[in-house]
Automatic annotation (TrEMBL):
Domain of life: Eukaryota
Cross-referenced SUPFAM superfamilies: ARM repeat
Protein name: Parkin coregulated like
Extent of Pro residues compositional bias: 23-35
Spans annotated as Disordered: 1-52
Amino acid sequence: MSSGVQIKPKTAVQKSKASSPLPCSPEPATKPQPKPSDKLNPKTIDPFGTPSRTPSAFAAIYAKGGIPCRLVHGSVKHRLKWECLPETVPFDPLLVTLAEGLRETKHPYTFVSKEGFKELLMVEGAAEKTIPLLPRLVPVLKAALAHSDDEVFERGLDALVQLSAVVGLSLNDHLKHLLTNLSRRLMDKKFKEKITVALQKLEQYGGKATVAIIKSKIPTYCSISS
């Protein structure tokens, strides 16, 4: 005896839907395993990886490809590879951006900013390209010299000496803004010698007028000419 329940046969369309995957349904993505070299490869670093922290301006620019060089790591030391000749790169705003990167505390930003700043200042004609940027560079370097991280301070100090070697006397008008932080760090024994050498370099590149400027903030400074 029939139960009265009739099973309707599937139509061709229903059969097709049941057997074919949805056209817009992506297959499960397999997350690639990170390679050891990825940590040093600028293309694989995600500055937005820590959701609780907003990325710095330098990290954001770096992630978007706004820094025309990349880190190449070797067995002995790292180096930068420029996408184009540094001589052809506009200093404005790149030099200022690299100076801002000196305050970074994570790799590869620390290396790229430090090495990029140094290499850009080494190109022919760097002085005439850099001097107009001093009003923007000095506050950035001042922030690096005021940073609580010792390595950031040292990068800022090295960058200051490199800048002085390029612009010479032109830095004297801005020097007072940078000396206060040097005076404070001079109290720390581990930085005393390094800062003293840096001040002597500033005098060497800035001329005799630099001595009076330095002494106005650091009275104990002994001139290299005395």
